[in-house]
Amino acid sequence: MKKKLLAIFLVLTMSFSLVACGDGVMETAASDPGPVENEAARQVEEGSWSIYWYLCGSDLESSGGFASTDLGELMEVELPENVNVVIETGGSSAWQNDFVDAEKLQRYVYSSEGLELVDEQPSASMGEAQTLADFLEFAKNNYPADKTAVVFWNHGGGSVSGASFDELYGYDSLTLEEMSDAFQSVWEPSAESPALELVGFDTCLMATVDVADTFSDIAHYLVASEEVEPGNGWYYSQWVGALAKDPTMDGEVLGKNICDAYYTGCEVVGTQDNTTLSLTDLSKVGPLMEAYENFGAEALAVACEDPGFFSQFGRAAAQCENYGGNTKEQGFTNMVDLGHLARKNVGTLSTAQSVLDALDGCVLYQVGGQYRTEATGLSCYYSYDGDVDDFAGYADLGAGTAFKYFYAYELTGELDEAGMDYIADMNLDELPKIQNLTTMGWSGAPLDLDDEGTSFLTLGPEANDVLAGIGFSLYYVDEANDTMLLLGTDNDMDADWDNGVFYDNFRGVWGSIDGNIVYMELSYEGENYNLYSVPILLNGEEYNLQVAYDFNTELWSVLGARQGIDESGMADKELRLLQEGDELTTVWYMASASGDDEFEPYTAATITVTTDTAFGEITLPDGGYSMVYEMWDAMGNYAYSDAVTFDCANGEIITTVYED
Length: 660
Fold this sequence. Notes:
It contains 18 helices and 34 strands. By secondary structure, the chain is α+β, with helices and mostly antiparallel strands. The chain has 3 domains: 2-27 and 46-282, 3-Layer(aba) Sandwich (Rossmann fold), CATH 3.40.50.11970; 287-363 and 374-424, no CATH class; 440-657, no CATH class.
């Protein structure tokens, strides 16, 4: 550990004259680098490795120095003569070291001789295909090797938004189409003999079927994460160190080393609980894509026969691991674990098992935390928010065809001419009308009380075919001051889907931090644990606290804080762990009790974090509370029942329902 801290200190303080190299020091090139050798002047050494590292620093570097830290980790490793790391830096307004120039694109080589600046280019967006292509061409021509890996470092946004968000150019990012264009301009695509050994994403959310399909004729292996990565990212000293010790390893062995090193690094800093990283054999992606297409085609055919299937499929998706948040507070990535989605539909769709078999064949290895136990290595698109514009972005670039028509029909109730031709090939010639909440008249639906004082909502058997989910919102009501506070959402209900009857399971308790009630949103409902998002101000900045409830241990835990998905689709890579002395302010949402005004954020209690700070349930303080049943369909429509009210006093709960 002392060596690691020393290396990081060196990389943060070094100038162009001195660079750490293993245990020694070397001189670097001058700031005006001379010409590099071209491809014809170099011979590829058998057994050699080159890693082309596309290091787009973004705000991760300017604000936190995370790229410099990973450079420091790399430079702990003493490389053999047959291993080179070629690095392009850019994309950040400031670098937290003394050698990278934020005003240029710079190209470095880290080798057995240390770190050397070998080329500079004018500033350009690292989110542009041409910038990536120029770097890949430069690296290929001047630093070829027997085995080559390309590694992206930055934020990621999943299949729709891509990766490499450039802070200098409005967070412009590389889409999958742009990545494909860049790689194919440098290497001839070949599924039988791909040019690269490995493509890796030290970014968030890029282990998707769409990414795997994009690179299936470019590389042998893919290493990426389904979930948002923490800021510590890949552990470069360990996985590059493993390659340095054994350059004979292939991409599969290197990929496993990357995964293991990553998880070890997360354990060191305490960010391992909801991490994922997987190694995919891209030569086996063809059978997976065939199974995925058949899965989508069968789902579409069933929906064309009975549109109520959209609701059943949506309820299954709600119970699947999903990544990047997918709540109103955090924003939506609309990425769900493909294998978990298939498992939830094995009893409904005969093709689901083929998806699981194909995943088992191509996902060779994965690591994950205790709150990511359902991950199978690759995610796929599912429209959790019903956003037609987001879906349109996915439809332009996602892999496969059937699920695009499935979602188009689900979200809009219709298909274009190509979609109608597609279902015609399945001997289907019409689209039944989809029942949805806009036509059911369930807004303001009345509630009843049973003999034990439990409220329930009766919708009838049609609910099974209309609702993609149901939960409740909880409010604190202060009629004397004409104030209503929204405390959040949960799914603690008993549902009889066959008859369409839903009972609240309210126990008079709610989530809290050090005894202070919080607003909380359910982000994942699982069999073994639930995950919640809690909006807070952390030292004055907006964050979402990530909280888990474990059904087996009946314990709550705080996993850390993130800043959510921004307008560009970029996921926050930094998982901020609470530290002693942090100022944490809880956020509720307030409106008048008598009016129709919108709920606005309201800062409540401010807590100074201590070593004993914890999340838990507390009995609601005395007062009046209101619960509304919240219903949603697969199109993204919402409806709300009438309210049930609770008067809490001395631990007793008196329940009443609104009556006309």
